[in-house]
Design a protein that fits this description.
By secondary structure, the protein is mainly β. It contains no helices and 16 strands.
Length: 196
């Protein structure tokens, strides 16, 4: 894992599309991912909506998409919504960081690993009750016990958030780059990670 400083640039995310289908081009606002194979590249830096569906198949594995890698959609400033299906059981570090226009996050109710309980507009790791991704419209549920590393990283449109008394830990750089004039921590918080 690399580190991100204001001067550094994260790796560029690319994927390939089957030559018979038109590739998703830089500048698009919606990403309807085709079957991934072949040689045509597309950039993710101008995607507005990500809708991973159960029908998306990776032909070389003949399987559903199960993982979103580290930094996969970092710096997608036009990204406004994410829908995670039940097949995705692994989301990498900072996969959606710097998404300052992100307003809606949903996880399929049948997902065995993640949820977006109470329409919270966040991704929560179900077994640990850890919020791993939030946005400017996130409402942290009372059942969340930790805010994960980089959960709101680069969310410059976040100007206020209420942290409930259930939260005991806040991870590294959880609110880095947010425009929070003040962050009130409840007495329940016993650990706050590094802030670089």
């Amino acid at each position: 894992h690399g580190s991100l400083s204001p001067e550094s640039t994260p790796p560029r995310s690319t994927a390939t599309a089957r030559p018979r289908e038109p590739p998703v081009r830089s500048g698009c606002r919606t990403a309807d991912f085709p079957t991934l194979e072949g040689t045509e590249e597309f950039s993710t830096n101008k995607i507005q909506t990500l809708n991973f569906t159960e029908r998306l198949r990776l032909t070389y594995r003949n399987d559903f998409v199960t993982s979103i890698g580290d930094w996969a959609f970092v710096d997608c400033h036009r990204l406004t919504s994410i829908n995670i299906p039940s097949s995705v059981t692994s989301i990498g570090e900072r996969a959606f960081s710097m998404g300052d226009n992100l307003t809606q996050i949903k996880v399929a109710p049948s997902n065995p690993v993640y949820d977006s309980r109470d329409n919270c507009n966040a991704i929560i790791e179900t077994t640990s009750n850890s919020l791993i991704l939030g946005c400017k419209n996130t409402i942290i549920p009372n059942s969340v016990t930790s805010i994960g590393d980089y959960a709101f990283y680069g969310c410059s449109s976040l100007t206020s958030i209420y942290i409930p008394n259930s939260v005991t830990t806040i991870g590294n750089d959880a609110f880095y780059g947010c425009k929070l004039p003040i962050l009130h921590l409840p007495k329940s918080v016993t650990y706050v990670g590094l802030y670089n």
